[in-house]
Amino acid sequence: MNPSLQRVCVVGTGSFLPNDPVPNDRLDDVLGHLPDAPPRVQSFIKNMGPRMFSGGGVEQRHFAIDPETQPADAHGRSAGRGGRPPGPGVRQPQTGGHRPAAAGLLELRLQHATDLALLQERLGIPKCAEMEIHSNCSGVGKAMQIAYDALRLGRYRTA
To answer: Which residues contact residue 65 at a Cβ distance below 8 angstroms, ignoring those fewer than 6 apart?
Structure first.
């Protein structure tokens, strides 16, 4: 091992699940039905949908929209809830004694660039490097890899 590389460890995480869980059999109620979709799309939904849901073992999902009112919940707002003390849908952040404001690097898998600045403000981080990760469902793993590399090289002390 290169002696100039820093030791890196995860000292804590936080999480937030928006809204009530939606069981697989109610997904169309939340996401909408596609009665006017082309026949190939209808066939895919009918044949592949059940396989996709049963094969992964996931029985319910959380969406950043309310099935009744449909307002979107910005990623930055949701992520900020995961870094704060517990409340509805929030697991207590485990930070190993670090305050969010001490972060040197802030990463977020997001859809809108303004979400990252909003998250930084909500967490009370006065100054830090920011990085947007655009990679769909694999964004969390990629963000962890990038943070690990940046910390290991000594570019930042916390992320």
So the answer is: 19, 30, 71, 72, 73
Classify 101 as helix, strand or coil: helix
In sequence order, the 6+-apart residues with CB closer than 8 A to the CB of 7 are: 152
**What is the enclosing helix (H) or strand (E) of 61?**
strand 60-61
Query: What does pLDDT average to over the chain?
Result: 75
Distance CA 107, CA 117 (A): 11
What pLDDT sits at residue 106?
74
For the chain, domain boundaries: 22-61, 73-152
Q: How confident is the model at residue 90 (pLDDT cuts 50, 70, 90)?
A: very low
The Cα–Cα gap between 141 and 134 comes to 12
CB atoms within 10 A of CB 88: 10
